[in-house]
Amino acid sequence: MAEDSQKTKGDGVFDRELLPNVDALTTFAYHLTYNEEDAKDLVQETFMKAYRAISSYDEGTNAKAWLFKILKNAYINQYRKKSRRPAQVDFEEFIGYQDSEDTSLAEYKDLREEIFENLLGDEVTTAINALPIDFRTVILLCDVEDFTYEEIAKIIDIPIGTVRSRLHRARNMLKEKLKNYAESLGFEDKRSKQSEDDSE
Fold first, then answer.
1. Residue 182's closest CA among 110, 115, 109, 127?
2. Closest by alpha carbon to 152, among 160, 127, 15, 102?
3. Tens of pLDDT along 177-189?
4. 117, 135, 33: which is closest to 79 by C-alpha?
């Protein structure tokens, strides 16, 4: 009886705190895999693993960051299987991961949805997707999903300093890729112009 009560409680937390993140997870998975079916499979696997580990999740903490870590690990494991590498990510790492400081769910933003609303051009999305996976991941987590540096460090298991470094390099890569596109839309690089003015 107590077990049934615990299961009902777990189902309630799952429906209330985890499921609302499905769209954000799907977007992130799509930008990792470039394939809608693979993205759906990855999200399904993420929720299956989350459901099995629900007893280790502290209600009211950062469900989104917890789920993103599971998804990232699931993606790495899938990649390793395809590469025929035997090593596996230790899923115990994310089971205990909680962040009580941020209990709110960040607003979900779908890059593809913004394209359809003419807020982002195809060139921007193409440029993001052309970044190496490590740099693409930090851009998506920080600039699209609004995770803090601390959360990103926990999600992808790297030091905060590395997060900052990768983000800086990723943004510079994007800047170079998008410079011509921005100029075609009538934007000017004011920093470069100022630098030229100062040198005169």
1. 127
2. 160
3. 888 776 777 766 5
4. 33
